[in-house]
Amino acid sequence: MGPGPHSDELLGRRAIQLSQTGRVPFGIYLHVPFCASRCDYCAFATWTDRHHLIDDYLDACRRQAATVAADCPPVTSVFVGGGTPSQVPPDALLAILAELPLEAGVEITVECNPDDVTAAFVGGLAAGGVNRVSMGVQSMVPSVLRSLGRTHDPAHVSAAVKTARAAGIADLNLDLIYGAAGESPDDWTTTLDAVLALGPDHVSAYGLTVEPGTPLWDDPSRHPDDDDQADKYVLADDQLAASGLESYEVSNWARPGHECRHNLLYWRQQDYIGLGCAAHSHVDGRRWWSVRTPERFIAAIADGASPEAGSERLDPPGRRLEALQLALRTSDGVPADAVPEEVAHLVDVRGGRARLTRDGRLLANEVAVRLRVEGG
Question: Is the CATH number of domain 7-267 3.20.20.70?
């Protein structure tokens, strides 16, 4: 694949400034769009009937990675998401990563379905330098999983965690979703207790969202209740904090030193390139995204064409506002003077920074739309 349109603008960044802590973070996201089944709430670019494309798709991603590598700075974090990356051979994933200029100590995360985790799979990942696994657990209660349209067996989660640890995976995240129809407070407590008993380094807990075009969207009887989700968020925050996991972003908790560096890169409005179909990228304030389907992506790479489907660039005030809105979600907070008086009760101000209180985290969007942008 030859350089696509805008390649000089997007990738001509060899002279990266050094900071006291090392190189400026630069990330790679790799999208794997294959799933064994589709969850009822999922609106991502994923397919259950395209497994025959896996080899061609991953080879196209490898070729794209080789092109990107010619001009991108040292990569400090990689996130392999989907879809279900654990549906594809680990050697093929590692071949893509091998094309990239990975910095020493790079964080490499691969998402997995607990039912797919075998010693051979995670052992292969670990041998190739993968040091972080994110498992889609969602719930440890079978009836709640059915309500979400999930098919994995919660009994397999514990075995999957043990297998990943035995393979040498240093950092383990467990993804949870709360607010499914029929999920009682006791169900949510059961999930939290079971997950914490596994000793994760990181937990992501998201309120169920309803996206257009999904089976969940078409069934209002299963739509989540805002008050119920708020109660469950408070319960999660209490239990996770009591177990030593600190909130560092609205939906993410980690043991100190185990925060996801790749996700922090997003929240700090730093630069990254997406590989594969439907993947998004951001470099120097310009955002672009790739064609949505694996077939179109494979064809573009085979033709030596750019897979870019569209792009945008925020004006300076818009970029400053977005930076504040992203930072607001994190424990770094925002400059205190960015928060107007009418929402000041939702932040804690110390050292000139305003950080969301827990009530503020529940109303983060309300605070975000009111932030003041200097010079905006």
Answer: yes
Phi, psi of 353 (to 5 degrees): -115, 145
CA distance 271 to 352: 27
Q: Token pair of 240, please? A: 């996770």
Tokens of 173: 């995240």
Helix (H, G, I), strand (E, B) or coil at 110: strand
Separation CA 90–CA 119 (nearest Å): 12
pLDDT digits 0-9 by tens, 83-121: 999 999 999 999 999 999 999 999 999 999 999 999 999
Cβ atoms of 138 and 145 closer than 8 Å: yes
List where CATH 3.20.20.70 sits in the chain: 7-267
3-state class of 246 per DSSP? strand
- At a CB cut-off of 8 Å and minimum separation 6, what does 358 contact? 234, 237
Euclidean distance between CA atoms 127 and 129, whole angstroms = 6
**Distance from the first to the final alpha carbon of the chain:** 41
Cα angle for residues 210, 285, 371 (degrees, 5° grid): 60
Distance CA 29, CA 371 (A): 29
What span, in angstroms and rounded, lies between the C-alpha atoms of 281 and 41? 24
Element at 290 (helix H, strand E): strand 286-290
Asked whether 17 and 64 are in contact (CB, 8 A), the reply is: no
- Digit-coded pLDDT (tens) for 135-155: 999 999 999 999 998 888 888
Distance separating alpha carbons of residues 250 and 62, to the nearest angstrom: 34
